[in-house]
Amino acid sequence: QVQLVESGGGLVQAGGSLRLSCAASGRPFSTYPGGWFRQIPGKEREFVASMNRGGVGTLYADSVKGRFTISRDNANNAVYLLMGSLKPEDTAVYYCAAGRGAYYSTSTLDWPYWGQGTQVTVSS
C-alpha cells in the first residue's frame, strides 16, 4: 500500500502559476499510475491529469490541457503538477492519487489511494 501527501497549494492571482508536489511512501510509487484530481464543495471529484508508471504516457482533462503539466520522479517517489495560466475556475482542493489500473482511467473508482488534498485558490 502507498501513502500520499500533497503540498504546494495556496493563493495565486489569475494568470499565475503554482507547482503541486505529492510525496509517496510505503510501496514504491513506480508501481502505480500517478494522477491528480480536484474537487469543489458540493461537486464530484474530477479528473485533472495522469501519468503512467514509466512517466511517458499522459492524459489531461480538456479544461487544463496546454496549461497544466504532470510529471513524476520515481527515484524520489514523487509526482508533480505544474499549473500555469491559472483561472478562477481552477480553484479547488487538489488531490494526488495512485491508481490500480490503466493511467488513462478518469474514474475515481480506479484510483484507490489518495492524499489529504491541498487547497488552490485563484483570485480574479
Quick tags:
49% strand, 4-stranded antiparallel beta sheet, 11 strands, mainly beta, 7-stranded mixed beta sheet, 124 residues
* Intertermini distance: 40 Å
Percent range of helical residues: under 10%
**Uncertain stretches of 5 or more adjacent residues:** none
Order of helix and strand elements from N to C terminus: EEEEEEEEEEE
Q: Report the radius of gyration as a whole number of Å.
A: 13 Å
Record field, number of beta strands: 11
Oligomer: single chain
Q: Give a short account of the largest sheet.
A: 7 strands, mixed
Structural class: mainly beta
Average pLDDT rating: 97
Figure out the total of helices. 0
In brief, what are we looking at here?
With 124 residues, the protein is an all-beta fold. The chain has strands spanning 2-7, 10-13, 18-26, 34-39, 46-51, 58-60, 68-73, 78-83, 92-98, 113-114, 118-123.
